[in-house]
Each structure stands twice: as C-alpha cells, then as structure tokens.
Amino acid sequence: MGLLQYDEKKQFGAEESSRIERIYNFIYRLSGSTEVAESLTEGVFSRCCDNRGDELLLLKQGWLEFLNRYKENVFEGEGFIQRCILQLAPEPRCALILRDVFGYSYGQIAFVLDKVEPVVVSLVSWGRREMRENNHILASL
Q: pTM score, two decimals?
C-alpha cells in the first residue's frame, strides 16, 4: 500500500496507521482498485477528523463514499477470490467483506450498512452463496 510513507507512519502513530490501513483494505476489497482505495481513504480521514477513533464510523463513511462515487462501476480485481468478490452486488459484497474478511459482528455490519441484523445475515448468506456460484463459473473460464 502506497498510502502511508515511512515518515507519515511515524507522524500518525501505530494505532492511527493501523486504522488507516484497515479502512484502506476495506475499500480496496470493495473496489479491487488501489487508486479508489487511496482516494476514498484519504477522503474518509479528511472528513472524519473528530471521529478518527471510532472505526465503525470510519467504515460507514468509507462505505457511503464508495456508494456515492462508485456504486455503478464494474471493477476487475487481481486474483481469483477478489474477482469473485467483485461479482457481487455492492451491499452483499460489503457485508461479506466485513463479516468474512474482517470478522465484524452482524450488529456492527448493520450499523455500517444502516440495516437491521436479520437483513445483514441474509446479505452475508446470499453473498456466500453467490461466491460459491461465481467460483464455479470463473473457474471454468
């Protein structure tokens, strides 16, 4: 990740650097694009100065900015799994990434997506099912 250079990491401290990398990685998984991840991560941290300590608020802001700017875009990522993830619609993609990649609870994901927990459970389940189907389709290409 080119987002933080050595001097910037010293400036922010380990906890802040870790949070920046987590938001960057989340947005990268949503888009498969380093350029999008860098741009949106920078935007999230410039807009959320008062809430930098609340990772869920940062994730929510990243999600909302992703939706506002890139919801309709079709992304092509590197690697088989990333391409399967990018085949999902945005909401199940987000829910699946937050649950299966980052390990957030359904309640935390519900906060980020502004949904109730049963809807999040359905989105994750649907995303997993689609991933299995996409896995078979992409593997046969």
A: 0.82
pLDDT in tens, 18-64: 888 999 999 999 999 999 999 999 989 887 656 556 889 999 999 99
How far, in Å, CA of 26 to CA of 17, rounded?
Answer: 14
How many CA atoms does the CB half-sphere of 136 hold within 13 Å? 5
The two three-digit tokens of residue 119, written as one number: 């809807």
Angle at 55 between CA 51 and CA 58, to 5 degrees: 65
Domain hosting 82: range is 76-141
Query: Are residue 26 and residue 89 in the same domain, yes or no?
Result: no
Residue 78 and residue 70 in contact, taking contact as beta carbons nearer than 8 Å: no
Tell me, yes or no, whether 34 and 90 share the same domain: no
Read off the CATH number of the domain in which 110 is found.
1.10.10.10
